[in-house]
Amino acid sequence: MWRERAIQYAFLLIVLVFAYTTILNIYERPEDIKIASLFIGAICSKRVESKEKLVVAAAADLIPALVAHFRKDRCLRSSTGACYQP
Asked: Residues 6 or more apart from 68 whose CB is under 8 A from it?
């Protein structure tokens, strides 16, 4: 039990030192925060863009199945005209 408490205090100490140095760097060098925010913004926009591509791909896969569901013969037609039951 005392080991868990010691690990918690060690982790708290590391977090406090990290927070102190981060705040000190922000105060002393505000231009670095501007550069870092540009990098973070670029990473976030790339992540959103990749999620958009996944959603579009999923919708593209879903549309033919929906069309076939609402057709009277319930077939997916290939380019050769063959009928596939979903």
From this structure: 74, 75, 76, 86
DSSP classification of residue 79 = T
Tokens of 34: 């501007």
pLDDT in tens, 56-84: 776 666 666 666 666 666 666 665 666 66
Sorted by where each begins, the domain ranges of the chain are 2-84
73: Cβ contacts below 8 Å, ≥ 6 apart:
83
pTM of the model: 0.39
What value does the mean pLDDT of the chain take? Answer: 76
By CB atoms closer than 10 A (0-12, 13-18, 19+), residue 76 is: middle
